[in-house]
Amino acid sequence: MTGALLEAEGLDKCFDGVKALADFSCAVQERKILGLIGPNGAGKTTLFNVLTGFIPSDGGKATFKGTNLLRLPPYRIARAGVARTFQNLRLIRRLSMLDNVLLAFQNQPGERLRNVFFRPRASTRQEAENRQAALALLEDVELAAKANDPAEALSYGQQKLLSLVCCLATGAELLLLDEPVAGIAPEMREKILSVIRSLPGKGKSVVVIEHDLDAVMQVCDRVIFMDAGAKVSEGTSQEVRNDPKVIEAYLD
Amino acid sequence: MEYLLHILILICIYVILSASLNLLAGYAGLLSIAHAAFYGVGAYVVAVMALNWHTPWWVNVVCAVVLSGLLGALVGVPSLRIRDDYFVIATFAFQVIAFSVLNNWVSLTGGPMGLPGIPHPVILGWQVSTHLEFLLLVGFFCALTLWVCHRIVRSPFGRVLKAVREDEVFAQAAGKNVAAHKMLVFVIGAGMAAVAGAMYAHYISFIDPTSFTVMESIFILSIVIIGGAGSLWGPVLGTVVLVTLPELLRFVGLPSSVAANVRQMLYGGLLVAFMMWRPQGFLGQYSFEKGSGRE
User: Fold this and answer.
1) Looking at the partner chain, which of B148, B160, B286 has a beta carbon nearest the beta carbon of A103?
2) Are B12 and B141 within 8 A, CB to CB?
3) What's the whole-model pTM score?
4) What is the pLDDT of residues B207-237, one digit of tens each?
């Protein structure tokens, strides 16, 4: 496929003889939302971990805008423009929401120690701008009122929303969202889904792992059904939903 | 009066040590017990240079800081690759090695006999010799250390340190070079400890390896924990309490042989009490329990 933002080819990953990824290939098109579904242990999260450098792959290729992602450390992949959220919700719980979002900004002069001491003006000016930008992002999702509360004071759903905002704040073009609406109340679910739906309009491309099939059908342009580390079916959400292999797997 | 000044000078030296260890342990979550080793390196570099080569004071101090920082980088390469308990053990190993080098390299360090007769520093023609003059000098470096720490922890750099302490995986996913941040703060901490060592060597004018043992490292760490890890003023309060408390024992009238033991018991008891009832210390917000984000 040409013009894909991310191309993965023949990815392999084995854990103690169990194939988590078996010759897995996929492509993510620009400004599209790709859904990733499949039973537990199908290798969905492993795929994210491999793409973001947290787990080394055993083989295959993954390129993002021509850059080889494999073998880069996670922080370089994030800087290159591939950001992610985590299934088991990662935030800096004891820091404020604002600090969490601020941490996600890239290229902060104040994160370089020599700027802190030798170019303090540039650092503080950028910090003030970043604060405004972070507040604006929180404003967009109606979390700004609690910006200075520690992240752990939020409800679970709000924390999931915050982690999505952090992911967005990295400025990455490709967002990998691991179960963004699992286990949260219907109202917050709608809110998060509407944020995800709005992402292509902001120039973002998205891959979503989700067990909530209804949510996947709502937001995704294309869907891949995975099982035992391999791609079983790919197509529009309707096509995948009607694929006998998928129906069989979900009826089991 | 001199006694009071002596206590104040000691407090300043320990504030430099504990504030710098707080950068590592309190902010970045790097629970190092090698701080006394870097403190010793600073003291010995200054003493050896002043005694053997009579180089100017500021040259000695700069050399002490640079050498200690380089040593910090060298120790950091292997030990910062590992985390939590393993990191503690790696720094402990370095602390033991440093002590035995100081204790056995007799031709350079004088071994267990130490280095006596370290001259008073002369700074731009100002001979620092009275207690008050030493207090001014050490107080200046103490204030400088606190200012540097303040700048670091209030900056975005400091925010990354806190993120590293709380959840390295999140920090990496947010595009932060965790390894580089740890290394940098470890080197800075080592350099600051060397400043304290340089002050101590000139002030006491005699150094031997027993001042730089693992017990000393643990004492500095106790100051950080009791004062409040991860708060700027915690180490200052912790130092005041832990340095003056044993001095108060003098006035109780205990014989000196008993007082030394009581002092050790006091530290131990305090540490246990704080761990049980106030793990975050007097002023800290964070205890050393593992953040929920860690695996």
Assistant:
1) B160
2) yes
3) 0.93
4) 999 999 999 999 999 999 999 999 999 999 9
